[in-house]
Specification:
Number of helices: 19
Shape: elongated
Helix content: 55-70%
Largest sheet: none
Number of strands: 0
Radius of gyration: 29 Å
Order of helices and strands: HHHHHHHHHHHHHHHHHHH
């Protein structure tokens, strides 16, 4: 009952905060309110459906795990040997040590009770990415991959070039399939490339919004990056295509030495792409560093005991992490924008006109090498955003057709992989809280299976060494 009520209350609080933050007045006497409308049944209420979905997943996971474990134990008894001989294939399947773990994952189908919205997709993608992470850890620990040792350059940072390439391509060409908050953060950290309205610019005259500039860059790609015709040198000539007329406030005063229209949109006052790139670092890095100082500093306060115990090493690690992430984010965003200038200078106009956005993001994502240590969680977060965006872009463009309740199937299969890894190699499931949570889902309690195995191994080694000492 508690597993049902707790998520429901959390969802209600989330919607209340959302209403207050958007300026909506909560009227408890509103006849359309779910609490007073008799026509609204509880099974149609999104809060109740989410809570019911999560609670039934937990309930049926426990029941199925217990059922398959008892079934396996009964089939392994001596009295069941004739049946095992008659049904050898089925017996091998039901008596495997992974059967309870995988069978209990059928509870993942209960996710279908939840409304088919972005929250359900996010849960499925998160579980999918974590299952792949745990599966990779298990294969690596077992020696199935990297038998001769993992290369020094290989790591989770290699996710970022592909994720950044896909996200930048979607941000410019398919912004409706791109996370909005991510886009706002990119634009805020692009001071030299996204031109804002000057303070002395007349208020009555139009100025392109930030997303208008992004749309113009997408249009330039579709027009195969036309050359720039300076209105200063050719005042009576049409200098912009009609679809880019909103950019005239930027290009009308652009430097006459600029060769490409994209450069006139991105940095109209400076004809040098290289100098603009260097100026971007000088302007953007302090703001990004300040952001990560506040962000990581707030989380560092949670580990105040380590800070008080040994302050200097703690502060040195915190400062190094802030600098690495600041350099990575600054370099990634700046290189992604600057690569457009590079491509226009060195590639013919018709070569990969729209794919350049992916290549630019890919090159920018290589800056993740600077922050390659200890940032796997951030890299996987970007991967999840990229998977969600790629799926939406593919569906929008007709690259593939979605399967009804496909996110539920992905969640169930991912849960099966996580359970199998936890059964075979608990240490491959990173995070003690995650392992304890999986123990709760099985009905084993708040226990860390990996820690229990380590303690048993230590006790066995101590007993063996004591026995050897007595023999001597």
């Amino acid at each position: 009952m508690g597993a049902y009520i707790a998520p429901d209350r959390k969802q209600k609080r989330r919607y209340i905060v959302s209403d207050l933050s958007s300026g909506h007045r909560m009227d408890h006497a509103d006849p359309t309110n779910c609490s007073t409308n008799s026509k609204t049944t509880i099974h149609r209420h999104p809060n109740a459906r989410i809570a019911l979905s999560l609670s039934t997943i937990l309930l049926f996971h426990r029941l199925l795990f217990r059922f398959f474990r008892r079934l396996r134990a009964s089939l392994l008894e001596g009295s069941a040997e004739p049946w095992r001989e008659r049904n050898s294939s089925l017996a091998k399947l039901l008596t495997s040590k992974y059967t309870p773990a995988i069978g209990s994952s059928l509870a993942g189908l209960c996710l279908g009770v939840s409304p088919a919205d972005q929250l359900r997709i996010t849960i499925a993608i998160y579980t999918f990415s974590r299952s792949l992470e745990f599966g990779y850890n298990a294969l690596s620990d077992s020696g199935y991959i990297w038998r001769d040792g993992k290369p020094w350059w290989f790591g989770s940072w290699l996710i970022m070039p592909f994720a950044c390439g896909q996200l930048l391509h979607a941000f410019v060409l398919d912004r409706d399939c791109f996370p909005e908050s991510y886009g706002r953060f990119i634009l805020r950290q692009s001071p030299e490339y996204i031109q804002t309205r000057p303070a002395d610019y007349p208020a009555r005259r139009p100025w392109p919004a930030t997303f208008d500039i992004v749309d113009a860059l997408a249009g330039l790609g579709k027009l195969k990056w036309p050359a720039f015709i300076s209105p200063i040198l050719f005042p009576g000539k049409e200098t912009l295509p009609p679809s880019l007329s909103k950019m005239s406030p930027l290009t009308s005063s652009a430097h006459p030495l600029i060769k490409h229209t994209s450069c006139a949109v991105l940095h109209p006052k400076d004809p040098s792409c290289t100098r603009t790139y260097l100026k971007y670092f000088l302007r953007s890095f302090p703001g990004v560093a300040r952001f990560f100082t506040l962000f990581y500093g707030a989380f560092a306060m949670l580990a105040y005991k380590s800070l008080l115990k040994d302050p200097m090493p703690f502060l040195n690690r915190l400062a190094a992490r802030i600098l690495r992430m600041s350099l990575f984010i600054t370099g990634s965003i700046g290189t992604s924008w600057g690569s457009i200038c590079m491509f226009n200078n060195y590639l013919p106009r018709s070569v990969l006109p729209t794919q350049r956005w992916f290549l630019g993001g890919f090159i920018g994502g290589l800056w993740a090498y600077v922050a390659r240590n200890g940032e796997r969680g951030n890299f996987l977060y970007s991967l999840r955003l990229s998977i969600d965006s790629l799926w939406k872009v593919g569906t929008k463009r007709g690259w593939w057709k979605g399967i009804k309740n496909g996110d539920v199937l992905v969640f169930m299969l991912s849960l099966a992989l996580m359970n199998a890894v936890y059964e075979g190699r608990p240490a491959a499931v990173k995070g003690a809280a995650v392992r304890k949570g999986m123990g709760v889902m099985r009905g084993e309690g708040w226990v860390d299976k990996a820690q229990i195995k380590n303690d048993e191994t230590k006790e066995g080694n101590e007993v063996q060494s004591t026995g050897e000492a007595k023999e001597e």
